[in-house]
Amino acid sequence: MPSGASNTWYCHSPSDLPYTDLQRLRGSKILYLDIYTPILDMIKHPHKYGLEETLKGCCGTGFLEAGPLCKSFSGTCDDVSKYLFFDSVHPTQKAYSVIATYALQKLLPLL
């Protein structure tokens, strides 16, 4: 990687990859999944998914805490299955299940 280049690549299409990366990926099939569509649908239609809270997380206040800030002293909600987010940024297991189902429906036909 060139000096000063980011070690994280965000690509919109395979043509955005540097030539050397494309050579290593020859024969690979690259698929893109839009995870924001199912998350937005869960926010707009929470009862369709059995959710009650989609705007704040289960951990702590639900607005600030994330990852390591969600410790036993910050508290969690009584029923995480009713929440879209566990903390302020990470989806709950239930939300990941919806995203995984969406991914299978969208990506399996392309393989």
UniProtKB/TrEMBL annotation:
Signal peptide: none annotated. Pfam families: Lipase_GDSL. SUPFAM superfamilies: SGNH hydrolase. Keywords: Signal. Belongs to the 'GDSL' lipolytic enzyme family. This is Uncharacterized protein. It comes from Brassica cretica.
